[in-house]
Amino acid sequence: MSQSLIVIIVTIIMIIAFFSGVIPIAASALAVPMVLQMTGVLSFKEAFAGFSSSTVVSLFTLFILGGILKQTTFLDDLKAFVVTKVASGKNGKRHVLLAAMLMSMLLSTFTSPSSAMVIMLPIVISVAKEVKLPIKNTIKACTDVANTSNNVLPVGSALTAYLTFNGFLEAAERFNAMDPFIAKVPTFLVFFLYIYLIGFKHYCKTDVTGVSESAVGKKKKREEREKRELTPLQNKLGKILFFGSAAVIIYTSMFTGVDLYIIAGIAILIAMVSGIIDYKEALRSVHWDTIFIYGGTVSLSQAMSNAGLNELIAGSVSNVLGGMSNPYIITAAIFIVTFVLTQFCSNRTVGAVFRPVAVVIGMGLGVDPRLTLLAAHYGSSLSTLTPMASSTQLYSFTVGEFNMREYFWGSLGPAMIFFAAFMIWFPICIQYGLVGG
User: Fold this and answer.
1) Model pTM greater than 0.90?
2) Exposed, middle or buried: residue 261 (CB in 10 Å: 0-12, 13-18, 19+)?
3) Is 24 helix (H, G, I), strand (E, B) or coil?
4) b vs e for 126-152, b when ≥16 Cβ sit within 10 Å of the residue's Cβ?
5) How many CA atoms lie within 13 A of 213 on its CB side?
6) How many helices (H) and strands (E) does the chain have?
């Protein structure tokens, strides 16, 4: 049996296991690297590399950083402020939801979606429960906004994206520095407004004012019983460590190459030495399901690469589109293929494989390669339907205790809106010279 066939079979079985819910998702995810190693697709080091990746280490430290905030009185103070100031009035709940979505977008723009959600979700869950917003729906709305907010503001990745894109467009018309911003904003705005006005209520129809008792209720009550009372100095220092670390992470993400887990780790050491959090409390604040699922499923990306499956799919797409000439069909096909693939493996891997292929397809078929390149880029980055799509989605999935069916079907509407907005706006940008001019 070929390696590519083995990877396909493992992926299909994993998807079935995740959707059926017969086996806990964390257990199913852990089985993936084991099977890939036993079948010889991956070595031991490759199969379990995800557990020692910088992403896992960063998530681990950020979970504990969130635990530091929970030890303080900040969440209680914030809930009191939201209830009395923000949530008052007829549209109070909508104001809270809008504020949470906007903060998720801003944080992910200056840091990363996963960092933004680890910082935001403890606050989002606490406030949503207090004002009786559906917690699962609020979690998912903030996560999807954070996960798709790259290139929305002309900072960070938006200022460097055009350099990457232009590297693939050496023989074609290239982008200008502000083009990713101009191209993305209207599409993202439609996506954002749809979630806020319509999609929010459809994420999880069974969730009324909270997630399951076992997810937030029992766990929260146990944590409150076990929570130690801090001295005024410890309480203030805990808040400074959390928000100070968040500010430093934002700065270093924009201007330096310092890994965020180093910053978070220093804050954690200070918190432990000062008695704000002890090691048992720190370990309780880690979402272990997130670690196990990410570490297990990330091996699929390496397996696809080893088996040449990404290149095989890209080549097949190129061959199929070779007989077509309609630019809309070609662009839509590239977007959909990359969008589907990114739900089950790393969006970075999918984007890295398909961006150069998309340029070649566009130039070969007489379609503006900037359009096909953007289709591959935004199709691969629209990782919203499954917890395997990104570490950000995985964290939200485990924290909210979603099941695969509600997570998938609730996310499908906003994704389709994003795709429709892309297919309308991006061709207009190209045709009328709004980008690349």
Assistant:
1) no
2) buried
3) coil
4) bbbbbbebbbbbbbbbbbbbbbbbbbb
5) 0
6) 22, 0
